[in-house]
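Archive entry. Fields below.
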Amino acid sequence: MIRRHPACPARFLARVLALVLLLCASQMAAHAGLAIALNSADGTISLIDTDTYKVTGKINVCKEPHHLMPTPDDKSLIVACAASNQLVFFDPLTGQEQKRVRDISDPYHLGFSPNRKWFVATSLRLDRVDIYDPADFRLIARLPAPKAPSHLAFDDASQFVFVTLQDSNEVMAISLPTQKIAWVMPVAATPAGIVMSPDNRYLLVASMGEGVVEVIEWRARRSVRKVATATAAHNLQPKGDGRHFYVSNRSIDGSISLLDTQTMSVVEKYDVPGGPDDMMVRADGKELWATARFARKVQVVDLVSKQLKLSIPVGSSPHGVFFLNHAGLR
Amino acid sequence: MIDALTEAFVHLQGWMFDRLVQPPLLALGLGSHLEMAFDGIQFFLAGVLQISFAYLLLRPLEAWRPVEVWPDRRAARVDVLYSLLDRLGIVPLAVFALLAPLFAAIDGWFRLHDIIPPQLEDLLPALETRPLLCFLVYLLLLDFAEYWRHRLSHVLRWWWALHAIHHSQRRMTLWTDSRNHLLEDLIGGFWFASIALLIGVPPGQFIGLLLVVKTVENLAHVNARLSFGSLGERLLVSPRYHRWHHALELPAGDRYRHGCNFAVLLPVWDQLFGTQYRGQELPPCGLAGDPLPPDAASSGFWRQQREGLQAFAAALWSRGSATDGQRESRHAR
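PREDICTED_STRUCTURE:
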């Protein structure tokens, strides 16, 4: 005969509470450090634990997601679904989908202006730049931008958005207050990534065709220097110290260069095979994560030893990576 | 094992891209086509794999249980050339190069006028996050479109003049599927790509869909006694089913005046639209004459291309449907 202990409500409640706390703790631990990698050809995102470097999940998102961008309050991560004409919002803490904004025509690269008044999306395939109201994603202006508008950057005062035109080898400046094209200037072949220098004086443009970062004094519309990095220089990511940028050189042998914006020279270079593309730096400055576009991997570079630390297998054509615990985006 | 194979495939794709494709594209200022070129290499490698698997699996089957035994396979050699052009991406690349700018211009015009062309997922949002289900729905719709493309190629006189090259082969083998006039490849590619773009097939799935269609088509033309069973032959186009489509003698009856068994993957379309013929024998294949010369079965690639164009031009200048032509070139039973 089995004897049961007399029921004790207090003990029972304590056990339930402990169980709930345990579950919450395990949930928090599971998402203590979440990285989200975007796989363009798969139409998925991979969820990666930044502590263990393990892929903890894969979520189907849409057709041809191309770039990702956090909202200014960091409460959402926006994925640009080019072929699905949508923006899909994810919680960057958990990887859970939050909402979908439809009828956003062919979004490729995205950006919020520093004053948060404008949300801009390029359409690489259809030669167009769209300006939206970030409050409700209402279309404000649609501008033709031949050919192949790729990445974008803003000036500090949010007066302009600058767009690389990949096929016509140009940079286009669009006035945000008037939503008109202000000027277009020629740059080195096949420009892709573009960022504003920390002093707001220069545009830094990665040229895939020439393997350089071109330094443009944008107010004078003048190219002042070409800094050689390596074949297929593609994208730039701030180190977070207000001075240096990492430059991904997207070839199979692949490398990432460290550009000093005060001397405008390459000061370090790391071998990162597989076509490094989009990058993100850990807040403590010890790791650089990069999507290896042609190897279906996220590469983690140890910035202390300056060596490739490990490769995390993700989906096909990984094109973006993000985690909240980063060193800064500007 | 699968991981190792995937890794090898990805490595080879990356190497070809980096060493063979990226340098000339960058030199020519075509950097924005890099990503598409990367997909193109995947298409090429998938074609190599598909054609290798077809050869390794289906060729022994043809040797083991042939429907027809021939003293040699010389007449099939030209079909191997057609297959290489088709499967290794040369014909699809030409179709793509011609069509991509046109589609981009049309799509761009729509968007600039605030029109976002609707997609399948707009009607069925559940497909958005279910890629496998989405793939199957795309396959179903594209197969339906392929049935009608194929049927029209027998009904329209000018189209039949081109398609007759495919039917002129009397020694049907696994390679015969790709034996098509290049102009017909272009028209067929335009048809397939238009429907795919209209329903919103993404590039990654497009390659997968083509591979499925091409693999079944290889199988359907194989010179082998292969039964799918009573149920299987109702579900998927089998070699026996498709052999009747290539039969030298059309089945009796007015509904078969343009031919029978036009389905590419699923016989259900023939059943629904009254063009199904489920003969149990394995008939001889080919054409008896018009619109091509009687020796078209054994002629070479360039001659077939020239004669196809001549027949096409002649058909354009004359009136009527392909019925008369098929009556002349395929005997009614």
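CURATOR_NOTE: The two ends of chain B are 53 Å apart (CA to CA).
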